[in-house]
Amino acid sequence: MKNVTDSFVSLVYWPFAGSFGFNTDILATNPINLSVVLGVLIFFGKGVLSDLLDNRKLRILNTIRNSEELQGGAIERLEKARARLRKVEMEADQFRVNGYSEIEREKWNLINSTSKTLEQLENYKNETIHFEQQRAINQVRQRVFQQALQGALGTLNSCLNKELHLRTISANIVMFGALKEITD
């Protein structure tokens, strides 16, 4: 390291060789060099820098404009979506109310229908019972009539002799003849 610093230090002792050389006086050379470099940069870089800044400014403004347009569109779509949501919620509530009323109506229709069906079944049952009672009564009557008839025939056969039997038949024939004349 000492060699590197020695070489720079030795530059201070170089003699001037004409118009070109190193001036090691910091106060005299740096502000001049800096002012020359800054002057050149400002002179030549002013247009490029202003163009870059103008382009950047335009891009930022375009981005802001696009963002505002997108925001406006998003707000509009959001409002439309909210309106659609409110409409759908109202329709859902209406369907729910209609559905409940329809269910109630169907329930009452089913109850009424079932009640009518039960009433009809009760009527059919009563009619069937009445019919079966009548049939049983008729069967009992027929049996009683047959038994009475058999008893009467038995009594008649045992009590009747031939002469009484012939008189009864003659009386019945006369009676039937009289009935026939009345009906003609």
UniProtKB/TrEMBL annotation:
Membrane topology label: Single-pass membrane protein
InterPro entries: ATP_synth_b/b'su_bac/chlpt (IPR002146)
Gene Ontology MF terms: proton-transporting ATP synthase activity, rotational mechanism
Transmembrane segments: 32-49
Keywords tagged on the record: ATP synthesis, CF(0), Chloroplast, Hydrogen ion transport, Ion transport, Membrane, Plastid, Thylakoid, Transmembrane, Transmembrane helix, Transport
Single GO cellular component term: chloroplast thylakoid membrane
Subcellular location: Membrane; Plastid, Chloroplast thylakoid membrane
Annotated function: Component of the F(0) channel, it forms part of the peripheral stalk, linking F(1) to F(0). F(1)F(0) ATP synthase produces ATP from ADP in the presence of a proton or sodium gradient. F-type ATPases consist of two structural domains, F(1) containing the extramembraneous catalytic core and F(0) containing the membrane proton channel, linked together by a central stalk and a peripheral stalk. During catalysis, ATP synthesis in the catalytic domain of F(1) is coupled via a rotary mechanism of the central stalk subunits to proton translocation.
Similarity section: Belongs to the ATPase B chain family.
Note: In plastids the F-type ATPase is also known as CF(1)CF(0).
Name of the molecule in the record: ATP synthase subunit b, chloroplastic
Source organism (scientific name): Choerospondias axillaris
Gene behind this protein: atpF
